[in-house]
Amino acid sequence: MAESSREADVAFIEALAELLNAKDLAELQVKREYGENDALNVRVSKNAPAPAPAAYAPPPAPAAPAAPAPASGSSDAAASTDDPASHPGAVTSPMVGTVYLQAEPGTPAFISVGTAVKEGDTLLIVEAMKTMNHIPAPRAGTVKRILVEDGAAVEYGAPLAIIE
Q1: pTM listed for this prediction
Q2: Phi-psi region of 73 (alpha: psi -120 to 50; beta: other; left: phi over 0)
Q3: For residue 84, what pLDDT is reported?
Q4: Per residue in 80-129, pLDDT tens?
Q5: What distance in Å separates the CA atoms of residue 42 and residue 85, rounded to the nearest whole number?
Q6: What segments bear the compositional bias annotation Pro residues (predicted)?
């Protein structure tokens, strides 16, 4: 009986791989619960080039000219220039996906540097698995930096913008 269960699991995994290709997905993860201590956890992914780290390369570059700021003796300034994600006003990505700064091509961007935002205002959109997820401002303030480019890939926890 265990052999037929194993064959069913193999067939299930093969079906997931076919679904991955048919829907042009990069990754798919499924957990099947069979009983209290019996489960199948499957993750199927394609070997794809990793453009996401390249999306992070531009943000550190602007931080380098701001290096003289720590000379003023402010440890907060040093933290914000070294790693945008550690800045207290950083808004990070809640998911892996593609960033869009406007609702659709040709329309104005949701935010720009200097824009005043209220808590809950849409800052940008992260598309994940063909779903457009509006990313709200976690607090009211002014947009000081936008750390991503339109159409860039982002990972979970990546800094998107700085609001002070």
Answers
A1: 0.50
A2: left
A3: 75
A4: 456 777 788 889 888 999 999 998 888 998 998 998 999 999 899 999 88
A5: 31
A6: 50-68
Sign of CA dihedral 130, 152, 24, 30: negative
CATH architecture observed for domain 52-163 = Beta Barrel (2.40)
Tokens coding 132: 């457009």
Q: Of 140, 147, 146, 133, nearest to 164 (Cα)?
A: 140
Name beta bridge partners: 117. 141
Give Cβ neighbours of residue 52 (< 8 Å, ≥ 6 apart).
96, 153, 154, 155, 158
Q: Kindly list the domain boundaries of the chain, sorted by start residue.
A: 2-45, 52-163
Output the CA torsion 83→89→94→98 (10° steps): -70
* Angle at alpha carbon of residue 94, lines to 114 and 50, rounded to 5°: 100
Q: In what order do the strands lie in the sheet with 122-128?
A: 131-136, 122-128, 97-100, 153-154
* Cα(103)–Cα(88) distance, integer angstroms: 27
